[in-house]
Specification:
- By secondary structure, the chain is mostly helical.
- The protein has one domain.
- The protein has two helices and two strands, in the order H-E-E-H.
- Strands 1-2 form a two-stranded antiparallel sheet.
- The longest helix has about 60 residues, at about 35-94.
- The protein is rod-shaped.
Length: about 90
């Protein structure tokens, strides 16, 4: 069963910002819950978290790239030192 589901953000955006839920209590009183505002607030929070997650991911990618560049550079230096040492050793043998 591969029914396509509506994304949560779309469902939240579909709720009118002025929507309220009226709840009748057992003692014949009524409570009004501002579900429209709550949904709008949830959308803002989700979007804010998505932006923050994208920034963190970008920072992680940059840090990894710098680390690879540093390690690769050090690896080349180590290989270069090894080659130089081998050349010196061969020179001493001759």
């Amino acid at each position: 069963m591969n029914a396509k589901q509506t994304p949560l953000i779309d469902l939240l955006n579909a709720v009118p910002k002025t929507a309220r839920l009226l709840v009748e209590e057992e003692n014949f009183s009524t409570r009004s819950i501002p579900v429209g505002k709550l949904c709008a607030d949830a959308v803002e929070e989700i979007e804010s978290l998505r932006k923050a997650a994208a920034l963190v991911a970008a920072a992680e990618r940059e840090a990894c790239a710098q680390l690879v560049e540093t390690l690769f550079g050090e690896q080349l230096q180590i290989v270069g030192c090894g080659i130089a040492a081998e050349i010196r050793a061969r020179g001493k043998q001759e």
